[in-house]
Specification:
Mean pLDDT: 81
Largest sheet: none
Strand content: under 5%
Distance between the termini: 46 Å
Helix content: 55-70%
Structural class: mainly alpha
Number of strands: 0
Number of helices: 3
Low-confidence stretches: 10-14
Radius of gyration: 22 Å
């Protein structure tokens, strides 16, 4: 009885260019920057102490807007752009 213990699979080169990596990192880095900003300046987040503030004063805070902008960029801009750039790399 003969068995093959190991087989060699063709190695697919999963190389992404520096441009693709940079675009993919912009969103997460923006989210991290917003979180760090909120930690370093907690007085900007009025959710912590909402004394008599309305909804817009509570919801529209610069660190929170930076985090939301990072998430929106990562999901709505970076994903399709990275997919398009990787598709161009495969075609070339």
């Amino acid at each position: 009885m003969e068995t093959q213990l190991a087989t060699r699979l063709p190695a697919e080169s999963v190389r992404s260019s520096a441009r693709v990596r940079a675009i993919a990192l912009i969103g997460p880095l923006t989210v991290v920057a917003g979180i760090i900003w909120a930690i370093l300046q907690p007085y900007r987040i009025t959710l912590i102490h909402p004394r008599g503030q309305g909804f817009w004063w509570l919801a529209v805070q610069p660190p929170l807007l930076v985090v939301v902008a990072g998430v929106v960029f990562a999901l709505a801009v970076a994903r399709p752009l990275v997919a398009d750039l990787e598709g161009d790399d495969d075609a070339a």
